[in-house]
Amino acid sequence: MFGYVLRRFAGAVPTLFFIVTIAFFMIRLAPGGPFDLERPIDPLIMENLNKAYHFDKPLWHQYFIYLGNLLQGDLGPSFTRRDFTVVELFQTGLPVSIKLGSLSLSIALVIGTFLGAMAALRQNTWIDYAVVGTATLGITIPTFIIAPLLSLVFGVMLGVLPAGGWDGGSFRNMVLPVVTLALPQIAIIARLTRGATIEALRSNHVRTARAYGLPAFVVVVVHTLRAAILPVVSYLGPTAAALLTGSVVVETVFGIPGIGRYFVQGALGRDYTLVMGTVVVVAIFVLVFNLIVDILYAWLDPRVRYD
Description:
Distance between the termini: 7 Å
Number of domains: 1
Order of helices and strands: HHHHHHHHHHHH
Structural class: mainly alpha
CATH architecture: Orthogonal Bundle
Oligomer: single chain
Strand content: under 5%
């Protein structure tokens, strides 16, 4: 297993390099620039800015400068928030996104797994139909509709929760964003768990466990759910990376200072370094969580071996 982990880390380096390269040239070739304003800047000031940020050099030269800084952990200055570097913004924004994402993912995993297992154990009953119907509805309604709707109902019309803002991460300010992030994931995890549990209940090892007279609790929790959780674990890799690095829609709608909101502001303002920094952080999270998923998969399924 240790050798496999080392090989995966070694393979992650060229993958990350490829992602950074593609993102760098795509954003630099897009129309506009960080200093394109409605009121033209004095040519001399523009010339000095281009020299300060190496924009006067060829694109390939800028690319190697960025790679050199990246290897030293320097993501560069922010062009839209000129008093901060990208690292400083992430030091404040990433903990916020991780806090929201971890709470949402934990709630979704517990509730989604429970609902999916209940639907499978009560297949073709009203419980099964209710879970499947609600989950289908939750999957089809996008987050950019759920977020404003919850903000309007509970924040504006009822006034029981803040419609937006962060206020230091108080419980009241986190309720609506966490619920918005968790609802679609609950629906997806419930569907995945239901299908996998039904398949596991029909497997030979579960039938054997029942034939040996094991208690129903042991058969369901130890033998059935351990096999049924495998598709959920596979799904959690990229999902955890996406949630923990911030939701663009949720953080924008609720005015949360996470890196998802910074990404939107950077993209709109052609903040090259801020967008590139977000891409790098998200890519690292995806690579790490996919590795964690592979390790958990081998632990849950004895048939899987990494030599």
